[in-house]
């Protein structure tokens, strides 16, 4: 176990060697206002430079990362992020921009943002995009604010938002934040929105339905046209949670299916790193009737110059400082431009192929949540048949760590008992998928022959099983010296 750097400290040891002061110390002290200088030592660890470098390098190697191993986290699209995109986003011309620079001095960057909006509009079949939202959930909130503004301008903001029971938890949270009452529509046996149940829920008080397609079971919602018809007839809107766009790229477009608003996750579909809390980017696209409500600033093209427009009349206003997470947007722009339409389509098709390969090879060992048809870009299994050995999905996930794999998403979607959700993505080789499949098969065997091995897993990681409740309730990340 790696010691804390404070525990490695030895009084008087130094990590540097500087020449002696060649000005009187008293002169320096007089430069610092009295209230701001400390009277006691800072209490920092005293280690050599080598101790320090090696300590942090060792710590970094305890981390699991996409750069070292497969990351099959369902619903998260942990695909490969080409390093060239990192390099381009890190160019000084972008990285050293100041957010208060005049528009005239950032024409190149504005052009990239403008073209990214156009590209996303084309990919999604929408009429305009904003790049402001900082993540998917923030995109949803922006979308709900647009829905509310739209209905308010028609005289009634309406009261309800319909959300399927398979939806990501951020959907009801975003709707509730905008003051809407959340109404749940159940899924049918095949795992899709139950049309009959939906018909009974749609009325003139419904503002919007938030749909995820492919849904969180990894299934394509086939009835979007009917669903759109039902809502539009009642004057309501249809919103797409486009976090799963990776499965649709170049094959079909939300705008063509009848969606009025969509958010996409650049940090999932368009190959920018995520996890660990961001930064992300959740652009929102709309059809023509909602363009006026998009947040400001809007990028406008006027006589060959790009400018930022802060005052379209019906805008919902600002949702974020400045122009969005530009570094993330540049990475997505590079990804889109380097793959082109055909490349994006290949990415989607390969992601779907990988998921179906995995499902086909694992289904004799794990029960698929829905088995009578192919899945899209991810597949969901249920660990409920392992309960007879006293093994739960959590134990399977922990045991995978011993085999060197990150655990898939577990216990989501909520409508699948003991859910295990695997998203292999298009960027893993067949050898990697096979190695993962072999590990999963071995674990299924171990569940029968040695369930205790699973219940006590992981055995090989730097820390064993954590008390997750305590870690969440009493989060304590700070070291305090006993003296301070
Ligand atoms: C990831 C995800 C979200 C939320 O996106 P964040 O960027 O994490 O806020 C919403 N819906 C679905 C289906 C997702 O997979």
Describe the 3D structure.
This protein is an alpha/beta fold and 484 residues long. 37% of the residues lie in helices and 11% in strands. The protein has a 7-stranded mixed beta sheet with strand order 1-7-6-5-4-2-3, sandwiched between helices. It has a 4-stranded antiparallel beta sheet with strand order 10-11-13-12, with helices on one face. α5 runs parallel beside α12 and α12 (326-362) packs across α14 (430-449). Bound molecules: pyridoxal-5'-phosphate. Pyridoxal-5'-phosphate binds at residues 75, 135-137, 168, 170, 212, 216, 241, 243-244, 265, 280, 282.
Question: Based on CA inertia axes, which overall geometry fits?
Answer: globular
Output the CATH topology of the largest domain: Aspartate Aminotransferase, domain 2
Second rung of CATH, namely the architecture of the largest domain: 3-Layer(aba) Sandwich
Largest sheet: 7 strands, mixed
Helix/sheet category? alpha/beta
Average of pLDDT: 94
The distinct bound ligands, ions and cofactors come out as: pyridoxal-5'-phosphate
């Amino acid at each position: 176990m790696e010691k804390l750097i404070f525990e490695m400290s030895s009084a008087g040891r130094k990590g540097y060697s500087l020449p002696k002061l060649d000005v009187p110390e008293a002169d320096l002290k007089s430069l610092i206002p009295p209230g701001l200088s400390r009277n006691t030592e800072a209490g920092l660890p005293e280690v050599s430079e080598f101790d320090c470098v090696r300590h942090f390098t060792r710590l970094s190697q305890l981390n699991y990362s996409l750069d070292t191993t497969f990351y099959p986290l369902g619903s998260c699209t942990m695909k490969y992020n080409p390093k060239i995109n990192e390099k381009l986003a890190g160019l000084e011309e972008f990285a050293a921009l100041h957010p208060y620079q005049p528009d005239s001095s950032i024409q190149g960057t504005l052009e990239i943002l403008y073209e990214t909006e156009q590209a996303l509009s084309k990919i999604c079949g929408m009429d305009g995009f904003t790049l402001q939202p900082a993540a998917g959930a923030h995109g949803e909130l922006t979308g709900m604010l647009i829905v509310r503004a739209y209905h308010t301008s028609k005289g009634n903001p309406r009261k309800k938002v319909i959300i399927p029971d398979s939806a990501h938890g951020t959907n009801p949270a975003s709707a509730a934040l905008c003051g809407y009452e959340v109404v749940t529509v159940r899924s049918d046996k095949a795992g899709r929105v139950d049309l009959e149940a939906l018909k009974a829920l749609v009325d003139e008080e419904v503002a919007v339905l938030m749909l995820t397609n492919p849904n969180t079971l990894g299934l394509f919602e086939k009835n979007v046209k009917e669903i759109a018809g039902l809502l539009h007839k009642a004057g309501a809107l249809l919103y797409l949670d486009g976090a799963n766009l990776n499965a649709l790229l170049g094959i079909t477009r939300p705008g063509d299916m009848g969606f009025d608003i969509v958010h996409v996750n650049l940090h999932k579909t368009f190959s920018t790193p995520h996890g660990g809390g961001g930064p992300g980017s959740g652009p929102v696209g709309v059809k023509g009737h909602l363009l006026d409500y998009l947040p400001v600033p809007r990028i406008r093209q006027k006589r060959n110059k790009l400018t930022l427009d802060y005052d379209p009349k019906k805008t919902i206003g600002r949702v974020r400082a400045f122009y969005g997470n530009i570094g993330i947007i540049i990475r997505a722009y590079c990804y889109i431009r380097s793959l082109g339409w055909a490349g994006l389509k290949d990415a989607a098709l390969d992601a779907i192929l990988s998921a179906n390969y995995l499902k086909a090879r694992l289904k004799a060992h794990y029960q698929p949540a829905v088995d009578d048809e192919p899945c899209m870009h991810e597949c969901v299994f249920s660990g409920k048949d392992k309960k007879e050995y006293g093994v739960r999905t959590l134990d399977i996930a922990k045991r995978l760590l011993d085999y060197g794999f990150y655990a898939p998403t577990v216990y989501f979607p909520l409508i699948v008992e003991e859910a295990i959700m695997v998203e292999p993505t298009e960027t893993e080789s067949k050898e990697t998928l096979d190695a993962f499949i072999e590990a999963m098969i071995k674990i299924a065997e171990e569940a029968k022959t040695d369930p205790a091995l699973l219940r006590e897993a992981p055995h090989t990681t730097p820390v064993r099983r954590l008390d997750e409740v305590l870690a969440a309730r009493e989060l304590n990340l700070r070291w305090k010296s006993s003296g301070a």
